[in-house]
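Take one protein record:
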Amino acid sequence: MRLWRSLRSLPQCGGVNICITRRKGGAGGGWRSRLIAAATNRGGRTISTWHQHNGQYQERISMSPSSFTHQELSTRSSQVASSSSMLQQGASINQNQQRQQQSANKAEAASSSTLHLDEGAARIEKALALVSDKLDLDSKRTKLDQLDGELEDDAVWSKDAVAAGAMAKEAAQLVNQINRVDRIWMEIKHLKEMAHLAKEEGEVEVVEECNDRMAALEKESDKLQIQTLLIQSPADEGDCFLEIQAGAGGRESGDWVEMLLRMYQKFAEKKGFVVDTVQETWGEGGGLRSVMIKISGWLAHGWCRSEAGVHRLVRISPFDSKGSRHTSFAQVRVYPVSSMNGSSAAETILSKDLKIDTYRSQGAGGQHVNTTDSAVRISHLPTGIVVTCQADRSQHRNKAVAMEVLKSKLQQLKEQEAQDEKATYREGLGKNEWGNQIRSYIINPYQMVKDHRTGVELGDVNRVLEQGELEPLIEAALAQKD
C-alpha cells in the first residue's frame, strides 16, 4: 500500500506545531525520532499525540520556539518531501511491473488455451477423415452433382415424376450425409482462425470461448464416428438375435447367464430397442443353460455384434456355503435378422433339407404350455444347424420364429464363407473356457470390468451388469475393429 508523509510548520501560541501524517508503525518513524531528539537537545518540550484522520494516523509534536530555527525546519521539511517523492516513484514502478506481469500472464494463458484448442481440432480432423473415408464422401459428392444436374432438367420430371421424386429423395439424403461432415470441418477452421487472432490481441476470454465450442464439436464428431463404425453392412441397421450359452459350472454358470441376460435387456431398453424372448433352456439344478432373445430397432445389430465371444465372471459364489471364489464362463453369439422375404426364403431353404420336431415346453408358462407340444425344433440337415423356439403358446408362431432364426443363421454362414472367415455359423470366439474370454467381470477380490480386446477398464461393475452401461466398452471395440 502506498505510504506518504508530509511535514508542515504551523504557528501556534508563539511556538511551532509539527504534524506528521503516516500509517502508525509505518515509514516516517526515523524522521519523527530525529525531530524529537533535536528539540530535546535545544531545550524544547515535546507533546506527542496520536489520532485517526481519514483512515490514517496523524501525530502532532508541539515544541517551544527555541527548539528550531526556520532554516532547520525548512531543511527537515525538504528532506521529508524528498523521501515522500522517492516512495511515490517506487510505487509507480511497482504498478508498471504489475501491469507487465498481468499482460505476460494473459499471453501465457492465451497460448496454453490455443494449444489445447489445436490439439482438440487435430483429434476432430482425424475422426472426420475416418468418417469421410468410411462413407466414401468423394463418391457421394460426385453422385450428388450428377443428380442435381439431372433434376434441373424439366424433362426428367415430366417424363416420370415418380422416378424424379426418388432421385430428389436420394439427393436429399446425400446432402444430409455430406453436410454433417462439412459443417464440422468449416466450424473447426473458423474457430482456429478466431482463436489465433484473439491470442495475438491477448483476449483470453475469446480464446476460452473458442476452446469450449471446440470441445462440444469433439463430442459431436465422436458420436458421428461411432455411428459410422456401427454400420459395417446393411444388416447392422436392422434387428438381431442374441444368444447366451452357459459354460461348465452348473448352477453358478446358469446364474451367470441370467446376469448377462439382464445386462443386455437393460442396455437394449436404454437404446429404445424392443426385446423378445425366443428360446430358453433351464438346467436341472436351476439357472439358465441357454437363452436367445430378439432385439429389434434401428442399429440393433450394429450395437450388439461386437459382444460376440466368451464372457468371464469372478466372484464369491452365493451358492457356495464355504464362501469360495468361483470363475464362470458364458458364450454370447449374435446373428443379424435375415432380410429374406417369403418367396426367396422358400427358394433358399428346401423342405427336404429340414427336420421339424415338436415337444413340450420347459419352464414357466402355464398349464397349456407344459401340457401341449407347442415347442418347435428345426434342424437344417445340410449344415447341421439346429434352432428351437418355445416362447409362445402357439406351435405355429413358434415355428415361424424358429424359421426366422434359421434364416438368419444361414445368411450369416453364407456371408462368412464369402469373406473366407471361419467355416462355422457361430460368431462367438473360441471355446467357452479360460483363455478365450473377450471380457472379464471381476466382483471379488476387487471390482473391475476389463475388455481384453481393447484394454478398456471400468471400475463400477454394478453400472455395467445392473444398468447396462456398455457404451464405453462397445465403442472402443468398434473403433478397434475398424
About this structure: The chain is about 50% helix and 20% strand. Residues 1-14, 340-347, 420-429 have pLDDT under 50 and may be disordered. Residues 127 and 222 are 7 Å apart (CA to CA). The first helix runs from residue 29 to 41.
